[in-house]
Please model this.
Amino acid sequence: MGINDVILKTVAKAVVLIILTFGIYLFLSGHNSPGGGFVGGLVLASAFVLMFLSYDTETVKDAIPIDFKKLSAFGVLLAVLSGLGPLLFGQNFLAQSFDYFNLPIFGKTEIATVLIFEAGIALTVVGVVVNIILSISEDE
Amino acid sequence: MNNIILIPMILPILAGVLLIFLRTYGRLQAWTSIAVMAVVAAAAVYLLNAIQTDGILRIDFGGWTPPFGISFVADSFAVLLVLTSSVVTVICLLHALVSTDKELVTMYFYPTVLFLIAGINGSFLSGDIFNLFVCFEVMLLSSYILLTLGGSKRQLREAIKYVSINIVSSWFFLIAIAYLYGAVGTLNFAHLSVRVAENGQEPLLTTISIVFLIVFSLKAGLLLYFWLPGSYSSPPVVTSALFGALLTKVGIYAMFRMFTLVFYHEPETTHNIIAVMAVLTLIGGSIGAIAHNDIRQIAAYNVVIAVGFILTGLAIATPDAIEGAIFYLLHDMVVKALLFLLIGTIILLTGTAQIGKMSGIIQNYPILGWSFFIAMLSLAGIPPLSGFVGKVLLSQGAIDSGSYLLLAIALGSSLFVLYSMLKIFKNCFWGETIVSKDDQVPLRRGFLVPCLLLVALTIGIGLGAEGLSAYVSDAADTLLNPQVYIDAVLTEDFQ
Model:
């Protein structure tokens, strides 16, 4: 991988930041408006893919030492466990609850347990998408 | 709270995910999977008994009641299948302990098997058709992985066919669901049943039901079985045993559910089509089973014959016939796992799958030979083995309803099953042994124990049919009286 494209690399640095922010925004705007874990995860994954494209895989792997296979497994685990949590309180599987909290800066914010579930989905999507891209790129 | 209904699906998923982190620990993975499936089987036994006392159980995810939310519904039919598939999986995994090579284990073999079972159990338990679709996909995706794991040329060739045919049929499935939703505006099984009964099953709905029939036929191998023999005979022994024992059964289950609970108003059309397809399947399967000389192919064609046989029960649809079909379904899961494990073991020992290249195996491995003999008798339906009860009940149903042609062909197929098995037995087990006692590959106990457990199970189902019949007749009763299912799922307002 001997690509040395200054423009691509410079733009990528800025764009990755924007994509990540947008991904997190989509993820948080979650369950009441368009967005959520799946879409957010896809956008986050596209940031990773852009990094893999503009820099070579080795550099990015050194910078982000995550095993994406395990990341997706962890995501599924998180989602399933968030579904099982309500069982401890005598609720049905996947039951959700929410409450309002006064956070600094954000003010009155609604935080729901579905956020944990969505986080699991987002991690799974990121893991799976990056995994697929990496598997294809290795296949030469 | 009926959260225990979740165990058959959630526990394998949870365990499968955890095992991904333990990739290199082969032994630990195997024993964890076995333990998890044993717990699932125990939960199924508990559920089965709970259903007998409390009626059909259900769990609404997140507390959203049907028809708005999604739910798992556990009736006797579903739980009997969950129980049998879990027990069969435990035994297949015991075989995997010795027969699966290290390379396969580190490539996520056990997690994938657990995801496969999660999909299968989820399909049995899901209370709405879209969830059924999702669980089907979970099962199919895992089966794609299992089919290609190992990566031999033959496997990859068959996988291309298998994956493409299943993607097409899943697409059909999705379209059929969309049609159905467009026509009646609901996806919950019980609600569908109510709405279809209210509207009357118009030609449009019957057409939609036939689209479903085609989809499930592709999955179950009813008439549309052209993909089956190749793909079930190519993967490693444990995988093909799981496929042969469980995969087609999910399609059969879906057909039973749809055509007894929802589309039961026009039997002249739908059930007659099923009857014709079943007959053609029986004939085609029989021809395939006697035509081939590769023992894996013969076993795969026996799967096809069994599918045809079970579906004749649905086509006849009298209480006896349905009961017989359920009995035969349970029997077939056990005995097909046994057959595939035995055949896989023979191939591992002799290094060939061609009938002509083996001889006199019974002198080298007597226990293996006699296990095969029992499997053969059980497949043919000789009392007191498990195949007998199903065949008798189904025949009784056929006679009561006057379906003599169906009966003749269904029973005729048993002869072909027996013939194809005898061909293997005569050529491979009898005769002069080619390998001397000193040269023979040692048969490890790990190969034999799972086979013997399955032999015990097929004898047990046969002898214990009396005890089992209470559950089976309850299952048949629920299938034949949709109102029982509807009452258990929907509140008064939606009926």
